[in-house]
Amino acid sequence: AVNTGEEQKKMTKFKHDVLIRLVRLIDAVLITVPFAICWFGYYAERIDNPFYSKGNFLVVGLYFILYIIFGRLYDGFAMSTYRVSEIAYGQFLAAGISDVILYIVIMLLTKHLPNVIPGLEALGGQLVLAIIWALAAQLWYFRTFPPQTTAIIYDQRRGMTKLIDEYGMNKKYDVQFTAQVEECLEDLSVLKSVETVFLSGIHSHDRNIILKYCISNGINVLVIPRIGDVIMSGAHSIHMFHLPMLRVSRYM
Hints:
By secondary structure, this protein is of the alpha/beta class. It contains eight helices and six strands, in the order ααααβαβαβαβαββ.
């Protein structure tokens, strides 16, 4: 029964990941369409030596890849954790930077300063498509995937439930119970009934015990870092004595 439950969890996660990637791919295609129209309809004919079809598709493909890279960087695909306005803004930044890079490429190909108006019109179309995708993707996500059963474990910081409600994240996280860290450590099995655990303001020793238990039981963990965690996040990974080490130093 345990193995069957674990396999079902893996299949559910696999289905979730595949569908999310497919929806993100649709977004990347949608944002690339205005650039492709702009390229084929205006810029492609104005370079000194026009490309054949393969060259034109290569330019469009380059834009597609750049947009995916910058979309990830600015969290433009985070349909389940950000507001529609934040998603659209992230995608606008990603599309704008990609447009600027391709504009520089076009300038090198045409050997003069090309007209920027078609590019700005394409950027406007991309913003409209980003807003439409963000609205549709959020609506689809929360209808397709039920909220995850959630527990909040705290030590010094309370109020996580209020934050979840304020940011509209109750659509994704269904808080079943909250508990003080000592109560949780007395009986870790209470966490088996949830899919996600928030850890807020917990000391590293107690936190590591809960982390190990959650990871071994396939439970997602979201941790609010302490000061030491923030410092360690800037550590440089090095190898010494044939061991992986983290080098932490003050910023120059």
